[in-house]
Write a structure and sequence with these properties.
- The protein is about 65% helix and about 5% strand.
- With about 120 residues, the chain is mainly alpha-helical.
- The protein is elongated and about 70 Å long.
């Protein structure tokens, strides 16, 4: 640890990320968070790298990725460079699922736009 590196308490991280302290502790307990440093008194001390990781986890959550898959991804990262192919496959699968959902939502949006147009007198039934 670099002595000049900024460290954040769990309440500061909760405020910065919008996650609760309970969620942050749960992430650590299930293995979604890498090892979080502790102060001499045992208080969690998060780094900027931890905040970056949490931002990435937030993006994975937004994709609808299952928690088990997120934990697996975190495990693969910790295992090292030899897991790059498996990590890529996991992300590619998630990307395909997100793209399919976007297609479904685009179709649903078109139907809504059509109906709104009808009610607004801009389209013919």
């Amino acid at each position: 640890m670099n002595l000049t590196e900024t460290r954040y308490t769990i309440s500061e991280v909760a405020e910065r990320t919008g996650l609760t302290a309970h969620t942050l502790r749960w992430y650590e307990r299930i293995g979604l968070m890498p090892h979080v440093d502790r102060s001499h008194s045992g208080q969690r001390r998060f780094s900027d790298k931890d905040l970056d990781w949490l931002a990435f986890v937030g993006k994975l959550r937004a994709t609808g990725m299952a928690v088990a898959d997120m934990v697996r991804y975190a495990e693969l990262v910790r295992e090292g460079a030899h897991t790059v192919d498996e990590r890529r496959e996991l992300l590619e699968r998630t990307r395909r699922e997100v793209a399919a959902r976007i297609d479904e939502l685009t179709d649903a949006l078109a139907v809504l736009d059509y109906k709104i147009g009808i009610y607004g007198g801009k389209a013919r039934p």
